[in-house]
Specification:
A 7-stranded mixed sheet has the order 5-2-1-6-7-11-10. The chain has a two-stranded antiparallel sheet with strand order 3-4. The chain has 354 residues and is α/β, with parallel strands linked by helices. 36% of the residues are buried. Helix 5 links the parallel strand 8 and strand 9. Helix 2 crosses helix 3. The longest helix has 20 residues.
């Protein structure tokens, strides 16, 4: 392995208890701070909940780099590396963090590529967070595998490494013992999936509840919030109209009515709305109702008929059609798959269906 110190000079961390899963968060100058801290927090909360159950810590997490000491991130923050990346003390799980300027990082931290190439056959589990997938790809660890990365660099990853099957919409992907995730916060999704694999769904659910995040996030990278779409709109009158639509989903909103409110002809309004928002008015309204329904479905005590009414669908069948169109699953299946709070889980266990 190039770029490392002599093996005899490497500091050896103290050995964790035999049943503890060792996790190295692998960083280098310019790494994305949130991508490192998010998974670290997931594992810390997992240990906390295990302790509450009277059990030993499940994870021994180290920040690892090619030197010990503070490693500067892409922000004002630095993380203290307490372990040197080497072949003598491989972890059970290695998580390679991404970088904002990944091409420069590949050159400046080329030794990491060599380490991944050598370590991959001996690691129980290897994962890349966001653009960290480029390090795995350069080491050949993703050849012939399905993988994901941040949507903004997915095309570049596919072009540079055509032997990889890139899914730019996935939040995270497992391919054998290799895991990859999408941008920044998706590292937490991946870490929660590892907790579920290691200690079961109940513990992962407890951690997700404590952190107020999804255990399994609905949708993919390409699914943008209707509220975010309205924030992105450049024309003030269209942005104001979107806000009005969000407040009046219970109305029968026709193109003619919306065009009149925007003080435009129907044809001109339809063209401008499509250009500004990236979808037609009816698609936007449908998306707003769909997002409201996904929030309401977290309360498993609400019958589906009530969810449909409060989300301003014409009826339950209409809501079902929209869910099948957008996700390929019915609202009831969505609820069973994505309910994440402890209260929701408890209610679901006692529910007899809607």
């Amino acid at each position: 392995m190039t770029g490392s110190s002599p093996l005899t000079a490497l500091p050896m961390p103290s050995a964790p208890p035999p049943d503890t899963i060792t996790v190295d968060i692998v960083v280098y100058p310019g790494f994305k701070a949130m991508e490192a801290i998010g998974p670290m927090s997931v594992f810390e909360y997992a240990n906390l909940h295990l302790a509450r159950q009277g059990k030993a810590a499940g994870y021994d997490v180290r920040v690892a780099s090619f030197k010990t000491g503070p490693i500067r991130s892409d922000t004002l923050m630095s993380l203290e590396a307490t372990k040197v990346v080497n072949m003598l003390a491989l972890p059970h799980t290695a998580m390679v963090v991404g970088a904002r300027h990944i091409q420069a990082a590949l050159v400046e931290s080329a030794a990491l590529i060599d380490w991944i190439r050598d370590a991959t056959p001996r690691l129980e589990r290897l994962s890349a967070l966001c653009s960290g997938a480029f390090f795995l790809a350069a080491a050949g660890a993703l050849d012939g595998k399905r993988a994901t990365t941040h949507w903004g660099v997915a095309a570049r990853l596919q072009a540079d490494f055509p032997a990889i099957d890139i899914d730019a919409d996935a939040i995270f992907i497992r391919s054998g013992n290799v895991w990859t995730s999408a941008g920044v916060t998706a590292g937490m999704d991946l870490a929660l999936a590892l907790v579920e694999q290691d200690f079961g769904r109940a513990l992962a659910l407890d951690v997700a509840t404590e952190m107020v995040v999804y255990l399994k996030r609905p949708g993919g990278q390409s699914q943008f919030s209707a509220h975010l779409l309205s924030e992105r709109t450049a024309k003030p009158n269209i942005r104001e109209l979107q806000s009005w639509i969000l407040d009046n989903l219970h109305e029968r909103l026709s193109v003619a009515q919306l065009a009149h409110k925007a003080m435009m002809s129907e044809r001109h309004f339809a063209r401008v709305f499509q250009q500004e928002v990236g979808m037609s008015t009816q698609e936007f309204i449908e998306t707003c109702r769909f997002e409201r329904a996904t929030q309401l479905l977290a309360d498993v005590a609400l019958p589906l008929k009530t969810v449909a009414a409060r989300a301003c669908f014409s009826d339950e069948a209409h809501m079902r059609r929209v869910f099948l169109k957008k996700l390929g699953i019915a609202p009831k299946v969505y609820r069973e798959r994505f309910a994440t709070t402890g209260v929701a889980a408890a209610r679901m266990a006692n529910a007899h269906g809607d």
